[in-house]
Structure formats: structure tokens, C-alpha cells
Amino acid sequence: MNGTTQKPLTIRVIQEEHGALAAMLRSVPLLLAEHRRHRTLPDFAALRAMLFYVDEFPEKLHHPKESQLLFPKLRARAPEIRDVLDNLDEDHLRGERAIRDLEHALLAFEMMGEARREAFETMAERYVRAYLHHMQIEERDILPLALRVLSVDDWGDLDEAFAENRDPLSGHRPDEPYRALMQKVLAALPAPIGLGPAL
Fold it and tell me: What is the rounded average pLDDT for all residues in the chain?
């Protein structure tokens, strides 16, 4: 590492984005279970906003930087972790299709009603479980290894790229086009994550 006790910016950005995303993802099955318990339909607009957020930010901003910048540096410095990195890259490649499939299942639930509730809930739970597992592997295996093997120059390159990440769910002010989206997401999320009632 760079000789200081402070974590590189890249690590902090990844951990902040993971934390925010994990909190949001965990809230989805809780919200669905609450509506099932009360025999009510969920707020489809809020769920659409949450899934669209995942498609716009983690899938298009977070994952590409891990796969295109961080992972190649780790492959060069720690070839023993190559299989793990290959699996994570495959997860990233599947991620865009998986979120689109989940968005389609939500649309089917909204259009077809109760006949499609169970299919959507099952798919959502599977998606959340897989995503949380993916992030756990990165936090447990990849980030500590990166701290051990990457050089000051490596971190300089990575920090410059990851500093551009502006994920609003991890505390950044959203760019103008995303403000309405983030208000919908935060309104849907239960406190203390968002502005909705605690579950």
C-alpha cells in the first residue's frame, strides 16, 4: 500500500457504494414481504425506480471500473486469484441481463397482478442473494488482497478513475437528470436508509 494508514480512495468508494447498494437491495424483499403480509400491491413506481437505479449506477459505473481497471491489475500482481476474478467478471457480465429480466418480471407483476407476484418475488430474492454474495466475495477476498499487492502507482491510477464515481445513494449529490429518480428511490426505502417508514 502507499505507506499511510488511510485506505486508498478506490477502496473507500467501493465500500461506500457496496454499503449503500446492499442496504437498498435488502430492503426490496422486506418491502415485498410487508405488502404480501397485508395483501396489498407494492408501489410499482418505487420498485421500478429502485431497479432502474441498479441498472444505471452499479451496472454501468461501478462494475465496469472493477472489471476494466482493478481486476486486471490484480491479475498481474496475484495470478493465484485469477479464477475468483474470472467468476466476478462473469457476474458483472450477467448483471445487466439479470437486472433487465427482473425489471421485466416486475412489469409482468404490475400488468398481470397476483398471477405474477410469486414469480417476481422469487426472482427478486434470488437476485438480491446473488448480488450480496458477489459483494461479500469482493469485500472479503479482493479488497484485502488489493491492499497487500498493489503499488502506489496502481492506487494513483485507480483513485483517479474511481474519484469520478458519483453514486447518489452513497451520499453524492445527484446530477440534475437523476434528482427525481433519487427522490423516488429514497422515498421508497425504509428509514434509516431512506425517507420511508421503518419496517
Answer: 89
